Amino acid sequence: MKLYWHPVSLMPWRVRIALAEKGLTCDEEIIDLPGGAGRQPAFLALNPFGQVPVLEDGGTVIAESTAIMEYLEDLHPDPPLMPAAPAARAVARQLMGWSNDLWPFSWKRWIAPHSIGIPASPEVAAQGRAELTTHLDVLDHRLAGADWLVGDYSLADICYAPLVVVAARAGLDTEIAARPAVAAWVERLGARPAVQTGMGMLLG
């Protein structure tokens, strides 16, 4: 297997965590997104939208982090990283969807003033921070009295791991600390060997 990724994007980190949880080795190639390599024909043949991550496994090519993680789960079901019960699996996928569809847009609004080339204003940044705070409230409610988002540790937790671990180091530490269930969860995530392996470049 070969993973195409770039450290500036948070989404590939979750794939690296899932690979580590499964004990799978994988070749890697960093695609120079800032330099435009993601728009070159060779990479566009793998993902026509020019985004990372992309996993190449023999003749199978899969883009989108959650699709890649579910592919790995289907191909290597041990240890299991999805609940067995259909209802719980649906809830896990719901959370995975929220981590994909909601968090990144709010994050871009919040982080814009600290990023080069992203238009920003104090109002937009405040809106992003407020949205992320609401998102943390939702996660805190789910984690009340629980170690993980859906029963046992799952892909739902892995999807959020890079997002919340980075958020705790990028100015949202106060919001996380104010939500004890989320704060304890972030600590548990950061203590997992697979998270430390998969996110070593960020955690170092």
Please tag this protein with its features:
204 residues; alpha+beta; Glutaredoxin; Glutathione S-transferase Yfyf (Class Pi), Chain A, domain 2; 2 domains; 4-stranded mixed sheet; 4 strands
Description:
This protein is α+β, with helices and mostly antiparallel strands. It folds into 2 domains: 2-75, Glutaredoxin (3-Layer(aba) Sandwich), CATH 3.40.30.10; 86-192, Glutathione S-transferase Yfyf (Class Pi), Chain A, domain 2 (Up-down Bundle), CATH 1.20.1050.10. Helices cover 57% and strands 8% of the residues. It has 11 helices and 4 strands. It has helices at residues 11-22, 41-44, 65-75, 86-101, 103-111, 122-143, 155-169, 173-177, 180-191, 193-198, 200-203, and strands at residues 2-5, 27-30, 54-57, 60-63. It has a 4-stranded mixed sheet with strand order 2-1-3-4, covered by helices on one side. Helix 1 (11-22) packs parallel to helix 3 and helix 5 packs across helix 6. The protein is globular and about 45 Å long. The model has no long low-confidence stretch (mean pLDDT 91).
